[in-house]
Amino acid sequence: MNLDALPYAWDPNIQRFRWTNGAAAGKLASEQAVLSLTSKLVDAEASQLEQLGRDFFAGKLNAREFQQQSGEALRRIHGSSAIIAKRGPQNVTNENWAQITEILKRQFYKGRSADGRPYGLKHLTAEVEQGKVSEAQLIARLRMYAKSGRLSGDLMQRRAAAESGKLYATRHLSPNHVHCASCLAHQQLTPRLASEITPPATNCECRTNCKCYLLFMSLEDAIKGGLSVASGGLSAA
């Protein structure tokens, strides 16, 4: 996955990050600085994705150029989101990258909505060329694609939690946000196996605007939080 925009690299010899670009090239970088910069790059890529949409609508880019450049932006958004979730690129495995690639395939052409209609960059591009989508609608759709990078981030958070022995979780509603009926139903305040809890931004009307979040925990903490034998969680531990 092309993540050349990230100006740092992991030095396995000392188990630390080093900057690779600019005046600080070669110097050590803290994990906090790396993840903060990665987050800013995700925001920059999201803005660039919207600009690509404006250029395509204005005829400054043809369909092939728009799809190629937008696809690269989405790859960087999803890849960077995974890096943030797993606390650095050194923790993102080949299996993780394969999972992100599958998510991107749905983003590009394989995905279908709840009513069975196809969606993705391939179909969005065709709808623009057919005059079925306005510039405002195109930008709104691209904004949703950019936010979908959270899917990769959430997947990696689950993986990282499982690898650290935190197989249980609760699902919470973010405060100061109007949640859809599905999110209200998905709320899970009693610990369960994380694999049994519907992930945020999945099967809800909020879609990528979903503000729900999971709190992962060990079996010991899950029991303290009210995990019961009836949930099946204890027998699975």
Mean pLDDT: 86
How many helices in DSSP terms? 9
Please give the order of strands in the largest beta sheet. 1-2-3
Number of domains: 2
How many strands in all? 6
- Helical fraction equals 40-55%
Low-confidence stretches: none
**Rg for CA atoms:** 20 Å
How much β-strand is present in the residues?
5-15%
| Beginning-to-end CA distance, first to last residue | 35 Å
H-E string: EEEHHHHHHEHEEHH
Question: Biggest sheet, in brief?
Answer: 3 strands, antiparallel
SS content category = mainly alpha
Shape: flat
Topology:
Blueprint: E1 8-11, E2 16-19, E3 28-29, H1 31-57, H2 63-85, H3 94-110, H4 121-129, H5 135-147, H6 149-163, E4 168-172, H7 181-186, E5 188-193, E6 213-217, H8 219-224, H9 233-236
Structure description:
The structure is a single chain. The chain has 237 residues and is mainly α. It has 2 domains: 1-164, no CATH class; 165-229, no CATH class. Helices cover 51% and strands 11% of the residues. It has 9 helices and 6 strands. It has helices spanning 31-57, 63-85, 94-110, 121-129, 135-147, 149-163, 181-186, 219-224, 233-236; strands at 8-11, 16-19, 28-29, 168-172, 188-193, 213-217. The strands form 2 sheets. The chain has a 3-stranded antiparallel sheet with strand order 1-2-3. A 3-stranded antiparallel sheet has the order 5-4-6. The radius of gyration is 20 Å and the shape is flat. The mean pLDDT is 86.
